[in-house]
Amino acid sequence: MRHARATLPTPTSTNSFWHSEPNGFLIGHRTTEDLPAEADIVIVGSGITGTSAARYLAEDERANGKRIVLLEAREACWGATGRNGGHCQPLLWDRGADVANFELKNVHTVRSYIEKHNVPCEWRTVSGCRQFWTKEVMAEAEKEIAQLRIIAPEIASQLKIITDKEELKQHRVSPDCIGATLTPGAGSLWPYKLVTFILEKLVREGRLNLQTTTPVTEISSKDNAHTLHTPRGTITAPTVILATNGYTSAILPHFADLIVPVRGEMSALFPPEKSSILPDSYGMVAALGQPANADDYLIQRPYSGVPNPAGHLMFGGGRGAGTLPMIGVSDDTVIDPDSAAYLRGALLKVMQLDGETAGVKELKAAAEWTGIMGYSRDDHPWVGKVPEREGLWLSGGYTGHGMPNGTLCGKAVVDMVLGEAAGDGIAEVQARMVEKGDIPKSYLITPERLAKARLWPTVEQQDNGGVHMNGLV
Ligand SMILES: Cc1cc2nc3c(=O)[nH]c(=O)nc-3n(C[C@H](O)[C@H](O)[C@H](O)COP(=O)(O)OP(=O)(O)OC[C@H]3O[C@@H](n4cnc5c(N)ncnc54)[C@H](O)[C@@H]3O)c2cc1C
């Protein structure tokens, strides 16, 4: 079966709330006026993954003196990371204990960086409250958690199931909800501000050449060197890291069936007058007749933000209510009006919003927009070396769950690149990393995994069949 490739990021896109305070230093930024003809390492993509790779290269002595260039099709951080729900929440069950531990470590790493550098990105440490709205999805969650108690009791002990109506109310969840799980150690943040803080720092310190509005249209490879074609000319390097997530197959067609673009819908809603801040970050499974495999997700911005002090309810999802295609779509210039309408109305029913809600039928939107995720056919990110393309590396395919993965996946690629350059075989480097918990084995790109994943139903077939692809939060 042939699979449609993603297209390149469109030059324009819907207006994400997170871009309402753009980073002035980075807008239109090109560290050098001309695109360098050569580099030692080129990174493609300036979201959480590409930025993390750039940061860890800059921090690693083994990369001292290397010319690092980052190419971005749009403005910096204008892809999924600049358009997402703002959750950084580890999933503790579903994918195995090694993945849970990796995600916990990832969130800790993100938080430590923010604290160390005092990054003004509205980080709030919260519990993740995942709501289950039908008896079936609640029973499924309880079954999985019971299994986790057997195979990984130390992780399971961090989870709490709540079904008591009073307790649900304390978490501001409607008592109509069947039950919820509470997970500690989650965070909510303004992701664009974190990523652009890191990028600006790297550029100002002279450790990165960033070239925005420079799409890579093709990669040609010869004699272990890769030439990246752009409308501004070419750049050649022995090592290229693709951090292009949902758009990967536009320049790596071989991955068209493995990382599939999926459009997601987001909104920033004004809370009711005089309402108090919500205590948790939230995921909602099967709420208000939504399909069980397409979650809704909510965080609240603090009321103290400047110059946007409104405590917006950042609410995404509404896939079941939508009428436009989403799977296989790499165009985020479009809003699905039905998903958007669902998002404006649903919180008044699924949450206990206090303040002045009497007579309010829907919340007013400060912004509504879309963004492109990369769904992985076997539900795990793809991290490592692209087979049969010496020097070409990839990290992407987070299935709408990149914030608790992208930072350490970006680091993992850097460790693989530099480990191999130091003379170790890639298999040996990766085995060491898996052993240390630096990357889950199931994330590694291997010929065996590629073949096995291709036996799975396609992403579209899984979605049509109601399979829950982890998805958001
Ligand atoms: C609406 C929405 C809500 C989401 N909510 C959450 C959430 O709450 N929590 C969570 O964990 N995850 C969420 N996600 C998923 C999360 O945002 C992604 O998994 C994560 O941001 C991926 O980061 P990335 O750096 O790999 O990709 P991106 O942030 O998409 O970055 C890739 C970059 O590569 C650039 N690029 C692509 N192709 C080329 C090319 N050929 N040449 C040059 N540049 C190129 C793009 O322009 C883009 O800037 C959401 C995603 C969406 C769309």
UniProtKB/TrEMBL annotation:
Q: Which named protein is this?
A: FAD dependent oxidoreductase
Domain of life assignment: Eukaryota
Q: Per its UniProt record, what SUPFAM superfamilies does this chain match?
A: FAD/NAD(P)-binding domain
Q: Where is the FAD dependent oxidoreductase domain?
A: 40-416
One term under GO cellular component:
cytoplasm
Task: List, alphabetically, the InterPro entries matched.
Answer: FAD-dep_OxRdtase (IPR006076), FAD/NAD-bd_sf (IPR036188)
Note the PANTHER family from the entry.
FAD DEPENDENT OXIDOREDUCTASE, SARCOSINE DEHYDROGENASE-RELATED
The record, for Pfam families, names: DAO
